[in-house]
Amino acid sequence: MTHIVLIGDIVASRRIRRRDAFQETLKTHLRAISRASKKRLASPYTLTIGDEFQAVYHKAGGILDDILALKAALHPHEARFAISCGEITTRINPRQALEMDGPAFHAARAQIDTLRKTGNWIGFTGVLPAQTPLPGALVDILSTELDRWMPARIHILRRLLEETPVATIAQGIGISQSAVYRNIREGRLASWQTIIRETETLLAASLKSRHSRPRPRPRP
Q1: DSSP string covering 20-52
Q2: What is the pLDDT of residues 164-218, one digit of tens each?
Q3: Residues 6+ away with beta carbon under 8 Å from 42
């Protein structure tokens, strides 16, 4: 069955001091994301080998918001994310993202290896129509800009994606409304909103089209 597989990997994790404490913090963040996103997750965020983690989605909407949430929560540590849309040939494990396999996992794993080589931190595979330039543009912008942001700007973007009023955003993070507007302007957050929502729309369409494809009949 077709799902979206996300594999995440902490950058330079072996150089993190008190790695055991960091892993406990990472587990806490993964559990929080899983609780907040349980309606779109088929299998929750799970720490796997070392400082890698993975999850399985059955809905596309909100997946990039979840990545932004993790990005902000893990600051100043960095992570790379591979998103793959494809088949999972084993039974879905609803308790942990373990003991599953299929082309979607293989593709996500290959994408993580590619990201390690290129230095980008997000990549798509088997996801979006090849004729659209949006994935490449998104990856380029994310790779060159987002690592320069402080968590507050990421938080503002996430709240904007939820259509939260500016006054409420400002109050929530303890800054002035003018500071929020400055972040929106300097970070080009309106464009980010469009990119993220359009990408998730294309991702949802890809997932739907794969679900609707007729399965080949076995030969007699």
Answers
A1: HHHHHHHHHHHHHHHHHTTTTEEEEEEE-STTE
A2: 999 999 999 999 999 999 999 999 998 888 888 888 887 887 777 755 554 544 3
A3: 3, 56, 57, 58, 92, 94
Mean pLDDT, the chain, rounded, equals: 85
How many residues are present in the chain? 220
Q: Give residue limits of the domains in the chain.
A: 2-128
Handedness of CA 154, 5, 51, 35 (dihedral sign): positive
Q: Which CATH architecture has domain 2-128?
A: 2-Layer Sandwich (3.30)
Q: Rounded to the nearest 10 degrees, how much is the dihedral formed by the CA atoms of 89, 91, 93, 94?
A: 110
Residue 190 to residue 90: CA distance in whole angstroms: 40
Instruction: Give every CB contact of residue 211 below 8 A, 6+ residues apart in sequence.
Output: 1, 2
